[in-house]
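job 3f2a | input accepted
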Amino acid sequence: MVGIQPEPKRVLRDPVLLLAFGFGSGLAPKAPGTAGTLAAIPLYLVLSPFSLPVYLAVLLVMVIAGIWLCGSAAARLGTHDHPGIVWDEMAGYLLTMIAASGSWWSVVAGFVLFRLFDIWKPWPIGLVDRRVAGGAGIMVDDLLAAVPAAVGVALLEWLVG
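job 3f2a | predicted structure (161 res):
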């Protein structure tokens, strides 16, 4: 069940939906997860100059808030994981970029690798996605997809740098 497709006005007026929909990027008519990941790139570029502890603190806040936020948005929309809920993609992209240099190619590589693993959902990502419910379930598959994507970005950084 997909649930209801909210009116853009509803998303833009409801703070929970606005955040869960990645500041409106999840309203994209096609590939909202990709749009949400794209919306995370400016956030990454703002955070990348900060120290690792600051970056991790922001990421941790996003993950903890995301569990509640995604669960609340899903409940409001009457579905487990509405495609427009993209806060999880944003957090997943930030996790993917944890070891990146911030170069243009690492931003692109992180985007491609994260989307690949998020869409493909290889074991155990797909299994966890099917078995974990609520806001945690919405968040965890993207965080798990970010792990091999982050390893891929780190390997590319090592090979290129």
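job 3f2a | The chain has a mean pLDDT of 94.
job 3f2a | closed
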